[in-house]
Amino acid sequence: MKDLTQGSIPRHLINMAIPIAIGLFVQTLYFLVDLYFVGQLGDTALAGVSAAGNANLIIIALTQILNVGTATLVSHAVGRKDKKDANLIFNQSILLASGLAILTLIVGYGCGQYYMQTLSNDAQIVEAGTTYLYWFLPNMALQFSIVAMAAALRGTGIVKPVMLVQMLSVLINILLAPVLIAGWGTGYPLGVAGAGMASSIAVVIGVIILLWYFFRLEHYVSVNLSLWRPDWASWKRLLSIGFPAGAEFFLMFLYMAVIYWTIQQFGASAQAGFGLGSRVMQALFLPAMALAFSAPAVAGQNFGARLPNRVEQTFKWTALLSCLVMAILTAICLWQAPALISSFSDDIAVLTIASGFLSLICWNFIPTGLIFTCSGMFQGLGNTWPALLSSATRLLSFALPAIWLSGQGDFYIEQIWYLSIATVTMQSLLSLYLLRGQMYRRLQFD
């Protein structure tokens, strides 16, 4: 356990953000490695895998419930020096993770093909996406356990073990991808099925190593089967904080689904280009996301210790550092957008769409950094409902005009990117306003 209620706030944020960023980056490599090798199979396979990968946003939404709820409650318990409550929350989170993993496999295998049919009317894209999804489902199911363990450690101020495990998992995935997708060394290429299989095998190994760490090396929070009986009070606490955050990510899934639906009339190249551009954009976001993921632990421990000034300083430093990182990334995209995506496909139409997407959507980066910062602070304060309200407002302000525009005779794809820039900017302003009110109310300690 690391005490974040003492010492320099920016040093705590940066010390946590660096390993978190590395962990997030290697996690994103799961998709980038798959996209690289799948991109060699053609735009149909690339569009199918990109669309199927969008289903992972549903899993992120559900894991976010555990992630935010566990990290917040554990950090508050650490701030209060309440080790017993921290362990209870952790074990109840693992119990919930096990149930959600089973549910993911049942729903995924039962509804995967129908899901793909809602995203594309191209039979080959549907087939490629469904095949990839079926083999990728074990990876998605095991994410719940990984997130629960990582969140508990992050709440105690520890992030490096998870980063090391993620790095090892991605290395395994990188080694397996060319063997299973392209048939290197075996002569039996499995195509998109191999892409999903490589990721699933890698994450199985990662879960085994993390469990070993908790059983042998971790002492503040640990796996205790006697605490695995459902504790409804703990579940209520986890869900009251985690559910809005999970719902927020589900709205992001709907946002992405609206884009796929509106641009399908432009063909497989447009969907593949958007899928490629959005994955690269997510990779670019990792430094700012790492800062935002560090903020709840720092703010949460200080909130639990009733130190309002340090909570306010956490927001100021997180916002400043996030905006600085996002400004640099904006400049890079404006200058070198084609170079960022040129390695992932040799299809000119796909590259043109992806490059155009990045060169316009980069104007979203600084507002997005502020949204990340506010979301992290809402988590640290223990109230994530304002973040959900902010995201719901953005979805409505984007989806309705986007659907209307897609039905117009002069509709062109860049209109979607311009609409996104406008709505994300409005969301950032609303998030700042809501956070100001929450900090005023919740930091009035007796």
Describe the fold and architecture.
The chain is about 85% helix and about 0% strand. The chain is mainly alpha-helical. The protein has one domain. α1 (about 10-40) packs antiparallel against α10 and α13 packs parallel to α15. The radius of gyration is 21 Å and the shape is globular. The two termini are about 25 Å apart.
Helix share bin: over 70%
For the CA atoms, what is the radius of gyration?
21 Å
Task: State the domain count.
Answer: 1
Low-confidence stretches: none
Secondary-structure element pattern, one letter each: HHHHHHHHHHHHHHH
The dominant shape is globular
Strand content: under 5%
If you average the pLDDT, what whole number results? Answer: 87
Helix and strand content put the structural class at mainly alpha
Summed up, the helix count is 15
Q: Major sheet: size, sense and barrel closure?
A: none
- Head-to-tail CA distance between termini: 27 Å
What is the count of β-strands? 0
Task: Describe how the helices and strands are arranged.
Blueprint lengths: L8 H31 L3 H11 L2 H25 L2 H37 L3 H33 L4 H22 L10 H25 L15 H32 L4 H17 L1 H19 L3 H34 L6 H14 L3 H17 L3 H22 L7 H29 L4
